[in-house]
Design a protein that fits this description.
Layout (H helix, E strand, L loop, with lengths): L6 H17 L11 H16 L18 H13 L8 H14 L2 H13 L4 E4 L15 E5 L2 E8 L10 E7 L10 E7 L5 E6 L8 E12 L3 E2 L5 H14 L5 H17 L1 H4 L3 H29 L8 H23 L18 H8 L9 H12 L6
Parallel strand pairs: 1-4
Antiparallel strand pairs: 2-3, 3-7, 4-5, 5-8, 6-7
Length: about 400
Protein backbone atom coordinates (compact mmCIF):
# COMPACT_ATOMS: atom_id res chain seq x y z
CA UNK A 1 0.00 0.00 0.00
CA UNK A 2 1.33 3.43 -0.98
CA UNK A 3 0.19 6.15 1.39
CA UNK A 4 0.62 9.68 0.09
CA UNK A 5 -1.19 12.90 0.97
CA UNK A 6 -2.61 15.55 -1.30
CA UNK A 7 -1.80 19.23 -0.92
CA UNK A 8 -5.27 19.74 0.54
CA UNK A 9 -4.69 17.03 3.14
CA UNK A 10 -1.30 18.45 4.10
CA UNK A 11 -2.86 21.90 4.52
CA UNK A 12 -5.59 20.34 6.67
CA UNK A 13 -2.96 18.69 8.89
CA UNK A 14 -1.15 22.02 9.31
CA UNK A 15 -4.39 23.75 10.30
CA UNK A 16 -5.21 21.05 12.87
CA UNK A 17 -1.72 21.16 14.35
CA UNK A 18 -1.75 24.96 14.64
CA UNK A 19 -5.18 25.04 16.31
CA UNK A 20 -4.32 22.31 18.81
CA UNK A 21 -1.05 24.01 19.72
CA UNK A 22 -3.02 27.11 20.63
CA UNK A 23 -5.88 25.44 22.52
CA UNK A 24 -4.83 22.17 24.21
CA UNK A 25 -4.83 22.78 28.00
CA UNK A 26 -1.39 23.23 29.50
CA UNK A 27 -2.34 21.03 32.47
CA UNK A 28 -4.07 17.65 32.13
CA UNK A 29 -7.76 17.60 32.97
CA UNK A 30 -9.03 15.50 35.84
CA UNK A 31 -10.36 12.08 34.86
CA UNK A 32 -13.88 12.21 33.46
CA UNK A 33 -14.81 9.43 35.87
CA UNK A 34 -15.16 12.14 38.54
CA UNK A 35 -17.88 14.79 38.57
CA UNK A 36 -15.40 17.68 38.31
CA UNK A 37 -13.41 15.94 35.58
CA UNK A 38 -16.61 15.25 33.66
CA UNK A 39 -17.44 18.95 33.81
CA UNK A 40 -13.93 19.88 32.60
CA UNK A 41 -14.15 17.49 29.67
CA UNK A 42 -17.59 18.79 28.74
CA UNK A 43 -16.07 22.28 28.61
CA UNK A 44 -13.27 20.97 26.38
CA UNK A 45 -15.88 19.52 24.01
CA UNK A 46 -17.39 23.02 23.79
CA UNK A 47 -13.98 24.48 22.88
CA UNK A 48 -13.54 21.85 20.16
CA UNK A 49 -17.00 22.69 18.88
CA UNK A 50 -16.12 26.37 18.60
CA UNK A 51 -13.30 25.41 16.25
CA UNK A 52 -15.58 22.91 14.43
CA UNK A 53 -13.30 20.03 15.40
CA UNK A 54 -15.75 17.88 17.38
CA UNK A 55 -16.32 15.55 14.44
CA UNK A 56 -14.78 16.86 11.25
CA UNK A 57 -16.74 14.47 9.00
CA UNK A 58 -20.10 15.99 9.94
CA UNK A 59 -21.72 18.53 7.61
CA UNK A 60 -20.85 22.16 8.29
CA UNK A 61 -24.45 23.03 9.19
CA UNK A 62 -24.29 20.45 12.00
CA UNK A 63 -21.01 21.71 13.45
CA UNK A 64 -18.50 19.75 11.39
CA UNK A 65 -16.28 20.52 8.41
CA UNK A 66 -17.62 18.18 5.76
CA UNK A 67 -14.30 16.31 5.76
CA UNK A 68 -13.83 12.80 4.47
CA UNK A 69 -12.57 9.87 6.54
CA UNK A 70 -8.93 10.35 5.53
CA UNK A 71 -9.02 13.86 6.96
CA UNK A 72 -10.63 12.44 10.10
CA UNK A 73 -7.68 10.05 10.45
CA UNK A 74 -5.30 12.97 9.99
CA UNK A 75 -7.13 14.92 12.69
CA UNK A 76 -6.90 11.97 15.09
CA UNK A 77 -3.15 11.65 14.46
CA UNK A 78 -2.60 15.29 15.31
CA UNK A 79 -4.98 15.11 18.29
CA UNK A 80 -3.04 12.28 19.93
CA UNK A 81 0.30 13.81 18.98
CA UNK A 82 -0.70 17.02 20.78
CA UNK A 83 -1.61 15.17 23.98
CA UNK A 84 -5.13 16.59 23.87
CA UNK A 85 -7.73 15.47 26.47
CA UNK A 86 -9.65 12.24 26.12
CA UNK A 87 -13.13 12.64 24.62
CA UNK A 88 -15.96 12.28 27.12
CA UNK A 89 -18.68 12.08 24.45
CA UNK A 90 -17.23 9.26 22.33
CA UNK A 91 -20.42 7.21 22.61
CA UNK A 92 -22.27 10.10 21.04
CA UNK A 93 -19.99 11.52 18.39
CA UNK A 94 -18.33 8.27 17.25
CA UNK A 95 -21.18 5.75 17.61
CA UNK A 96 -24.59 7.37 17.72
CA UNK A 97 -23.58 10.28 15.47
CA UNK A 98 -22.76 8.19 12.38
CA UNK A 99 -25.84 6.03 13.03
CA UNK A 100 -28.03 9.15 13.13
CA UNK A 101 -26.54 10.25 9.82
CA UNK A 102 -27.70 6.97 8.30
CA UNK A 103 -31.02 6.29 10.05
CA UNK A 104 -32.14 9.54 11.67
CA UNK A 105 -34.82 11.88 10.40
CA UNK A 106 -33.85 15.41 9.44
CA UNK A 107 -35.59 16.66 12.59
CA UNK A 108 -33.59 14.23 14.75
CA UNK A 109 -30.30 15.27 13.17
CA UNK A 110 -31.03 18.97 13.61
CA UNK A 111 -32.16 18.47 17.19
CA UNK A 112 -29.47 16.10 18.46
CA UNK A 113 -26.21 16.51 16.57
CA UNK A 114 -25.41 20.20 17.30
CA UNK A 115 -25.91 19.70 21.06
CA UNK A 116 -23.89 16.49 20.89
CA UNK A 117 -21.08 18.33 19.11
CA UNK A 118 -20.98 21.14 21.66
CA UNK A 119 -20.92 18.84 24.68
CA UNK A 120 -24.20 20.31 25.89
CA UNK A 121 -25.62 16.79 25.75
CA UNK A 122 -23.39 13.82 26.56
CA UNK A 123 -24.53 10.32 25.60
CA UNK A 124 -24.29 6.94 27.30
CA UNK A 125 -24.67 3.53 25.71
CA UNK A 126 -27.53 1.39 27.10
CA UNK A 127 -27.32 -1.98 25.38
CA UNK A 128 -26.11 -4.65 27.78
CA UNK A 129 -28.41 -6.20 30.37
CA UNK A 130 -27.63 -8.54 33.28
CA UNK A 131 -28.44 -11.57 31.10
CA UNK A 132 -27.75 -10.01 27.71
CA UNK A 133 -24.17 -8.83 27.53
CA UNK A 134 -22.32 -10.02 24.45
CA UNK A 135 -25.53 -11.75 23.38
CA UNK A 136 -27.60 -8.64 22.73
CA UNK A 137 -30.30 -10.68 21.02
CA UNK A 138 -31.32 -11.82 24.53
CA UNK A 139 -32.48 -8.29 25.49
CA UNK A 140 -35.58 -8.30 27.68
CA UNK A 141 -36.11 -4.63 28.60
CA UNK A 142 -39.50 -3.72 27.15
CA UNK A 143 -40.90 -0.65 25.44
CA UNK A 144 -44.68 -0.96 25.14
CA UNK A 145 -46.41 1.37 22.67
CA UNK A 146 -49.08 3.54 24.32
CA UNK A 147 -50.37 6.08 21.82
CA UNK A 148 -47.60 8.52 20.98
CA UNK A 149 -45.28 7.17 23.69
CA UNK A 150 -43.28 4.10 24.56
CA UNK A 151 -43.47 2.96 28.20
CA UNK A 152 -40.11 1.40 29.07
CA UNK A 153 -39.46 -1.11 31.86
CA UNK A 154 -36.31 -3.06 32.53
CA UNK A 155 -32.65 -2.68 33.34
CA UNK A 156 -29.42 -1.89 31.50
CA UNK A 157 -25.92 -2.45 32.86
CA UNK A 158 -22.31 -1.48 32.09
CA UNK A 159 -23.57 1.80 30.63
CA UNK A 160 -20.42 3.80 29.98
CA UNK A 161 -20.53 7.49 31.03
CA UNK A 162 -24.11 7.08 32.31
CA UNK A 163 -23.40 8.49 35.78
CA UNK A 164 -23.32 12.10 34.56
CA UNK A 165 -24.56 11.75 30.99
CA UNK A 166 -27.70 13.48 29.71
CA UNK A 167 -29.08 10.85 27.28
CA UNK A 168 -28.70 7.17 26.52
CA UNK A 169 -29.34 5.14 23.38
CA UNK A 170 -30.36 1.52 23.54
CA UNK A 171 -32.46 -1.34 22.26
CA UNK A 172 -35.75 -2.37 23.78
CA UNK A 173 -38.17 -5.17 22.96
CA UNK A 174 -41.30 -3.63 21.47
CA UNK A 175 -42.91 -6.93 20.43
CA UNK A 176 -43.45 -9.04 23.57
CA UNK A 177 -44.02 -12.17 21.43
CA UNK A 178 -40.72 -11.79 19.56
CA UNK A 179 -37.51 -13.68 20.13
CA UNK A 180 -33.82 -13.07 19.55
CA UNK A 181 -33.03 -10.42 16.92
CA UNK A 182 -36.64 -9.73 16.04
CA UNK A 183 -39.00 -7.23 17.66
CA UNK A 184 -36.26 -4.91 18.98
CA UNK A 185 -36.40 -1.14 18.58
CA UNK A 186 -33.63 1.46 18.90
CA UNK A 187 -34.78 4.28 21.22
CA UNK A 188 -33.13 7.49 22.49
CA UNK A 189 -33.91 8.27 26.14
CA UNK A 190 -33.24 11.42 28.23
CA UNK A 191 -31.72 10.25 31.51
CA UNK A 192 -33.65 12.86 33.52
CA UNK A 193 -36.99 11.28 32.54
CA UNK A 194 -39.18 10.36 35.54
CA UNK A 195 -38.90 6.67 36.41
CA UNK A 196 -35.17 6.38 35.59
CA UNK A 197 -32.67 5.44 38.32
CA UNK A 198 -28.93 5.54 37.57
CA UNK A 199 -26.74 3.54 39.95
CA UNK A 200 -22.92 3.94 39.59
CA UNK A 201 -20.69 0.87 39.20
CA UNK A 202 -17.12 1.33 40.51
CA UNK A 203 -14.23 0.29 38.27
CA UNK A 204 -11.06 -1.41 39.53
CA UNK A 205 -9.76 2.03 40.52
CA UNK A 206 -12.92 2.75 42.50
CA UNK A 207 -14.22 5.45 40.16
CA UNK A 208 -17.69 5.21 38.58
CA UNK A 209 -16.91 4.69 34.91
CA UNK A 210 -20.07 2.63 34.41
CA UNK A 211 -23.62 2.53 35.73
CA UNK A 212 -26.77 0.47 35.89
CA UNK A 213 -29.90 2.14 34.53
CA UNK A 214 -33.32 1.08 35.84
CA UNK A 215 -36.49 1.94 33.90
CA UNK A 216 -39.79 1.95 35.78
CA UNK A 217 -42.74 3.00 33.58
CA UNK A 218 -40.55 5.51 31.75
CA UNK A 219 -42.50 7.37 29.06
CA UNK A 220 -40.57 8.33 25.94
CA UNK A 221 -42.09 9.91 22.80
CA UNK A 222 -42.28 7.69 19.74
CA UNK A 223 -40.38 10.42 17.89
CA UNK A 224 -37.31 9.33 19.90
CA UNK A 225 -37.23 6.07 17.97
CA UNK A 226 -34.31 5.71 15.56
CA UNK A 227 -35.31 3.74 12.49
CA UNK A 228 -38.47 1.66 12.18
CA UNK A 229 -40.20 -0.14 15.01
CA UNK A 230 -38.90 -3.68 15.25
CA UNK A 231 -35.83 -2.86 13.12
CA UNK A 232 -33.55 -2.05 16.05
CA UNK A 233 -31.18 -4.92 15.37
CA UNK A 234 -30.23 -3.52 11.96
CA UNK A 235 -29.70 -0.05 13.43
CA UNK A 236 -27.64 -1.42 16.31
CA UNK A 237 -25.46 -3.47 13.98
CA UNK A 238 -24.65 -0.30 12.04
CA UNK A 239 -23.62 1.32 15.32
CA UNK A 240 -21.57 -1.75 16.25
CA UNK A 241 -19.86 -1.61 12.86
CA UNK A 242 -18.70 1.94 13.54
CA UNK A 243 -17.62 0.89 17.03
CA UNK A 244 -15.66 -2.20 16.01
CA UNK A 245 -14.47 -1.26 12.57
CA UNK A 246 -13.50 2.39 12.44
CA UNK A 247 -14.67 5.27 14.57
CA UNK A 248 -14.30 4.29 18.22
CA UNK A 249 -10.59 3.39 18.19
CA UNK A 250 -8.59 5.50 15.77
CA UNK A 251 -5.16 4.06 14.84
CA UNK A 252 -3.49 7.14 16.30
CA UNK A 253 -4.45 5.96 19.78
CA UNK A 254 -2.37 2.80 19.37
CA UNK A 255 0.44 4.49 17.47
CA UNK A 256 0.81 6.91 20.38
CA UNK A 257 0.84 4.00 22.85
CA UNK A 258 3.48 2.25 20.71
CA UNK A 259 5.58 5.42 20.67
CA UNK A 260 5.38 5.66 24.46
CA UNK A 261 6.31 1.98 24.73
CA UNK A 262 9.41 2.47 22.59
CA UNK A 263 10.47 5.43 24.74
CA UNK A 264 9.90 3.37 27.89
CA UNK A 265 12.05 0.58 26.46
CA UNK A 266 14.84 3.01 25.58
CA UNK A 267 14.78 4.51 29.08
CA UNK A 268 15.02 1.05 30.68
CA UNK A 269 17.00 -0.80 28.04
CA UNK A 270 19.72 -2.15 30.31
CA UNK A 271 17.27 -4.07 32.50
CA UNK A 272 14.78 -4.81 29.72
CA UNK A 273 17.37 -6.50 27.51
CA UNK A 274 17.94 -9.15 30.15
CA UNK A 275 14.89 -10.79 28.62
CA UNK A 276 15.12 -10.84 24.79
CA UNK A 277 11.36 -11.44 24.58
CA UNK A 278 10.73 -7.89 25.81
CA UNK A 279 12.56 -6.31 22.87
CA UNK A 280 10.68 -8.59 20.49
CA UNK A 281 7.36 -7.56 22.08
CA UNK A 282 8.17 -3.86 21.69
CA UNK A 283 9.09 -4.32 18.02
CA UNK A 284 5.94 -6.35 17.39
CA UNK A 285 3.79 -3.71 19.09
CA UNK A 286 5.23 -0.94 16.93
CA UNK A 287 4.78 -2.93 13.71
CA UNK A 288 1.23 -3.98 14.61
CA UNK A 289 0.22 -0.39 15.41
CA UNK A 290 1.53 0.72 12.02
CA UNK A 291 -0.22 -2.19 10.31
CA UNK A 292 -3.51 -1.27 11.95
CA UNK A 293 -3.05 2.31 10.77
CA UNK A 294 -2.52 1.28 7.15
CA UNK A 295 -5.45 -1.12 7.23
CA UNK A 296 -7.71 1.63 8.59
CA UNK A 297 -6.59 4.03 5.85
CA UNK A 298 -7.49 1.32 3.36
CA UNK A 299 -10.96 0.98 4.95
CA UNK A 300 -11.43 4.76 4.97
CA UNK A 301 -10.58 5.00 1.28
CA UNK A 302 -13.02 2.19 0.49
CA UNK A 303 -15.79 3.96 2.43
CA UNK A 304 -14.97 7.25 0.73
CA UNK A 305 -15.67 5.47 -2.56
CA UNK A 306 -19.11 4.41 -1.35
CA UNK A 307 -18.29 1.10 0.33
CA UNK A 308 -19.82 -0.23 3.55
CA UNK A 309 -18.49 -1.65 6.79
CA UNK A 310 -19.33 -5.35 6.92
CA UNK A 311 -18.54 -8.30 9.16
CA UNK A 312 -14.82 -7.65 8.65
CA UNK A 313 -15.21 -5.05 11.39
CA UNK A 314 -14.98 -8.00 13.78
CA UNK A 315 -11.40 -8.68 12.67
CA UNK A 316 -10.53 -5.06 13.42
CA UNK A 317 -12.07 -5.24 16.87
CA UNK A 318 -10.10 -8.36 17.79
CA UNK A 319 -6.89 -6.86 16.44
CA UNK A 320 -6.98 -3.50 18.21
CA UNK A 321 -8.19 -4.90 21.53
CA UNK A 322 -5.50 -7.57 21.67
CA UNK A 323 -2.87 -5.13 20.41
CA UNK A 324 -3.71 -2.82 23.31
CA UNK A 325 -3.31 -5.68 25.78
CA UNK A 326 0.00 -6.74 24.26
CA UNK A 327 1.48 -3.24 24.39
CA UNK A 328 0.48 -2.71 28.00
CA UNK A 329 1.77 -6.16 28.98
CA UNK A 330 5.13 -5.30 27.37
CA UNK A 331 5.25 -2.09 29.41
CA UNK A 332 4.54 -4.06 32.61
CA UNK A 333 7.44 -6.38 31.78
CA UNK A 334 9.79 -3.46 31.20
CA UNK A 335 8.87 -1.80 34.50
CA UNK A 336 9.04 -4.99 36.53
CA UNK A 337 7.93 -4.60 40.14
CA UNK A 338 7.56 -0.82 39.71
CA UNK A 339 4.69 -1.47 37.32
CA UNK A 340 2.38 -1.94 40.31
CA UNK A 341 2.93 1.62 41.53
CA UNK A 342 0.58 4.52 40.95
CA UNK A 343 2.26 7.64 39.46
CA UNK A 344 2.08 9.53 42.78
CA UNK A 345 3.99 6.82 44.74
CA UNK A 346 7.44 7.93 46.07
CA UNK A 347 9.35 5.31 44.02
CA UNK A 348 7.22 5.64 40.89
CA UNK A 349 9.51 7.79 38.76
CA UNK A 350 8.93 6.99 35.11
CA UNK A 351 5.98 4.62 35.52
CA UNK A 352 3.55 7.06 33.91
CA UNK A 353 0.01 5.79 33.47
CA UNK A 354 0.95 2.28 32.40
CA UNK A 355 -0.81 0.55 35.30
CA UNK A 356 -4.12 2.28 34.55
CA UNK A 357 -3.61 1.59 30.84
CA UNK A 358 -2.97 -2.09 31.56
CA UNK A 359 -6.09 -2.44 33.71
CA UNK A 360 -8.28 -0.73 31.13
CA UNK A 361 -6.85 -2.82 28.31
CA UNK A 362 -8.25 -5.94 29.97
CA UNK A 363 -11.75 -4.72 29.11
CA UNK A 364 -10.93 -4.35 25.40
CA UNK A 365 -11.77 -7.95 24.43
CA UNK A 366 -15.14 -7.56 26.22
CA UNK A 367 -16.67 -4.22 25.26
CA UNK A 368 -17.96 -3.58 21.72
CA UNK A 369 -18.88 -7.26 21.65
CA UNK A 370 -16.63 -9.89 23.23
CA UNK A 371 -13.85 -11.29 21.07
CA UNK A 372 -15.40 -14.76 21.36
CA UNK A 373 -18.53 -13.39 19.69
CA UNK A 374 -16.41 -11.63 17.05
CA UNK A 375 -14.70 -14.92 16.20
CA UNK A 376 -18.12 -16.51 15.75
CA UNK A 377 -19.09 -13.71 13.37
CA UNK A 378 -15.87 -14.17 11.38
CA UNK A 379 -16.43 -17.93 11.17
CA UNK A 380 -20.06 -17.71 10.08
CA UNK A 381 -20.28 -14.53 8.00
CA UNK A 382 -16.81 -14.22 6.50
CA UNK A 383 -15.67 -17.84 6.23
CA UNK A 384 -19.09 -19.42 5.71
CA UNK A 385 -18.55 -22.03 8.40
CA UNK A 386 -21.63 -23.78 9.84
CA UNK A 387 -23.03 -22.90 13.23
CA UNK A 388 -22.43 -25.48 15.92
Amino acid sequence: MHLDYTDKQRAFRAEVREWLAAHVPAQPLQTYDTEEGFRQHREWEAILHQGRWTMVTWPEELGGRGSDLVEWLIFEEEYYRAGAPKRVNMNGICLLGPTLMEYGTEAQKARILPKMASGEEVWAQAWSEPNAGSDMAAIRARADRKGDNYVINGQKIWSTRAVWADWCFGMFRTDPESERHHGLTFILVPLDTPGITVRPIPQLDGLPGFAEIFFDDVEVPVENRLGDEGAGWSVAMATAGFERGLMLRAPARFQETARRLVELYKANRESADRDPAIRDAVIRAYLDAESYCLTTYQTACRLNRGGKIGPESSTNKIFWSELDQAMCAAAMSILGARAELQPHAPAAAGVGTWLDDFLFAQSGPIYAGSNEIQRNIIAERMLGMPRK
